Q: What sequence folds into this?
């Protein structure tokens, strides 16, 4: 069976900066991948290429064996490749529940002008997803009222309404107080396990990486410098020196 996601020879430069340097990468179903790397290493660029937000100058992206390199982000999402953002992309004036309804309506791409939004989506799926991330008590509050950690959960709940097979999360714990990060990741990873979603998250906190990842890929200057089981990558001297700054 083919990889869930595979890239071949991805290349992209911004001016003189090579942000993606001939990247060959494959992710299998069921993996929990942590991506580590210094700021500017190219982690977000790689995500943006895989999800259609940036077009590479060379190379290809395959999702479930389908070449999605030149597809639009909204088409790629509908194939089952979801993402969340470092800064959650919410509808801040809407309630938490409405945010999920809007996300669900986006799945079909058919938002009817004449039909109330709430009528066009499955209310039970909205409730189940809110409960899955522990936001059921805040369903009727505006998204604006949520603290950062719950905004992150809302962003992920919205991504789940699109029924992804793979969810890519760019720094899901950034901006969250360090004492709240583990609880946030516990909720997120439990939700993804329950929905059988393969996951990939960018993370700087090595305790979190160790706790949740089944595989770690370390980015240095637009390249995958090390890729393998967490214990192996995190004990690699080059990664300790250039990524973790512990050696
Ligand atoms: N849209 C852009 N325009 C110009 N340069 C960019 C753009 N996006 C990223 N870069 C540059 O590409 C490199 C990789 O950035 P990025 O992928 O955001 O790194 P990371 O997510 O690992 O911090 C950096 O040098 C960054 O400044
Ligand atoms: Mg980034």
A:
């Amino acid at each position: 069976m083919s990889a869930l996601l595979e890239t071949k020879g991805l290349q992209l430069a911004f001016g003189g900066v090579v942000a993606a340097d001939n990247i060959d990468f494959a992710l299998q179903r069921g993996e929990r991948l942590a991506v580590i790397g210094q700021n500017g290493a190219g982690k977000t660029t790689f995500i943006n290429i895989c999800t259609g937000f940036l077009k590479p100058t060379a190379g290809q992206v395959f999702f479930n064996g389908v070449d999605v390199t030149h597809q639009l982000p909204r088409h790629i999402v509908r194939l089952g490749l979801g993402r969340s953002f470092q800064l959650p992309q919410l509808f801040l004036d809407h309630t938490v529940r409405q945010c999920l309804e809007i996300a669900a309506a986006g799945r079909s791409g058919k938002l009817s002008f004449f039909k109330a939004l709430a009528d066009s989506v499955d209310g039970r799926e909205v409730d189940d997803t809110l409960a899955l991330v522990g936001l059921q008590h805040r369903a009727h509050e505006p998204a604006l009222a949520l603290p950062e950690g719950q905004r992150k959960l809302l962003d992920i709940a919205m991504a789940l309404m699109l029924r992804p097979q793979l969810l890519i999360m760019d720094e899901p714990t950034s901006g969250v107080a360090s004492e709240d990060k583990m609880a946030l990741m516990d909720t997120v990873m439990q939700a993804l396990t329950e929905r059988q979603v393969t996951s990939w998250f960018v993370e700087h906190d090595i305790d979190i990486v160790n706790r949740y990842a089944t595989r770690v890929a370390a980015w240095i200057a637009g390249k995958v410098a090390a890729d393998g089981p967490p214990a192996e990558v995190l004990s690699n001297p080059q990664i300790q020196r250039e990524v973790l700054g512990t050696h």
Notes: Residues 14, 17, 19, 37, 39-45 surround adenosine-5'-diphosphate (ligand 1) (CB under 6 Å). The domain at 1-79+214-247 is CATH 3.40.50.300 (Rossmann fold). The radius of gyration is 18 Å. The chain is about 35% helix and 25% strand.
